[in-house]
Design goal:
- About 2% of the residues have low confidence.
- 27% of the residues lie in helices and 25% in strands.
- The chain is of the alpha+beta class.
- Strands 9, 12, 13, 14, 15, 16, 17 and 18 form an 8-stranded mixed beta sheet that branches.
- α5 crosses α6 and α5 crosses α8.
- It has 2 domains: 75 residues, OB fold (Dihydrolipoamide Acetyltransferase, E2P); 211 residues, Chloramphenicol acetyltransferase-like domain (Chloramphenicol Acetyltransferase, 2-Layer Sandwich), CATH 3.30.559.
- The radius of gyration is 33 Å and the shape is extended.
- β4 and β5 form a beta hairpin.
Length: 405
Amino acid sequence: MVLEMKVPSPGESITEVEIAEWLVADGDYVEKDQAIAEVDSDKATLELPAEESGIITLKAEVGDAVAVGEVVCLIDTSAKKPEGDAPKAEKKEEPKKEEPKEEPKKAEPKKETYASGTPSPAAKKILDEKGIEASSVSGSGRDGRITKEDAAKAVPSMGTPTGGNRGETRSKLSMLRRKVAERLVAAKNETAMLTTFNEVDMSSIFKLRDQYKEEFKNKHGVGLGFMSFFTKAVIRALQMYPAVNSMIDGKEMISYDFCDISIAVSGPKGLMVPVIRNAENLTFRGVEAEVKRLALRAREGEITVDEMTGGTFTITNGGVFGSMLSTPIINPPQSGILGMHNIVERAIVRDGAIAIAPVMYVALSYDHRIIDGKESVGFLVAVKEALESPEELLMDGNVKKALEL
């Protein structure tokens, strides 16, 4: 019996996928549930498992876009698993007769004279007018002398050849990368995007982490990172400024009473944005555990479409790559995104005196069509206040209880 394997639906609204890589060759014997291909959708890269065991016949090539429900391969389920090939007898090679080697002919040395590479007076005048060095021109005259004709034909060089590699490669963008590109351009063209900035003194968070990170990790099995503090601060600010937790749908504005926080992570196929569902109900431990789980799944290529669908607000951390400041692009159809950056010791004024503190610049990009300046600036100030006073504003004055220690 020959089984037709069709492309399953990876998720709602996805109508086609692209064959990223075949993990088997045409004519191979495959086992049931064995991964036979990787397919790219516009949201994630997924593995395609064999539905039955048998000999496979491929019906699509790498790079082909195939519709959901289209046949991509055939599996002959009646074929038996081939046994291992018997070792072939080694053939004894007869010793090769050495043929007499010919002595290489010695190249005659090129005759060099005072004229080699020297321009004639007429040629020198032309080269000077063109601004061309005589050393870059090959002479065709006697003994390599540069003639007037050589100088007339000479073209100024665009640079000095170094003999280095000047090759180039061309590769097709994956469906995921193309979709990301389309969404980013659409976000710039279809939203009234504006960015506001602020700076955060991270001293209080550093102090808390230094004091409790070992105890937190020993008890919960995850590190106490910055993402839980930022997520908690963002949730508090979203609840204070609901317009930032909204999005436009045609002529209507949809506001949410829950906080599904998207976190931008770098995966093997590019930027991915998995979602922490109902983050407002999670503790510090819960946020850290979920961030770790989603980041690992994204980097290992195991993230699903459902885990990246939705989200009401996004947090992106360019600081892990060393970014000092940036203007993050909104993740449509959301209306706001917070950009974190690297933490650098800077001089600040504290209580009327100059002090050195770990400072992070933060940026909020927002859709000005539904979020006014007062709300956007107020939101970012609320985030700053919570991060600079975490014990009071994020932990209700009880650090041990908030960290479940």
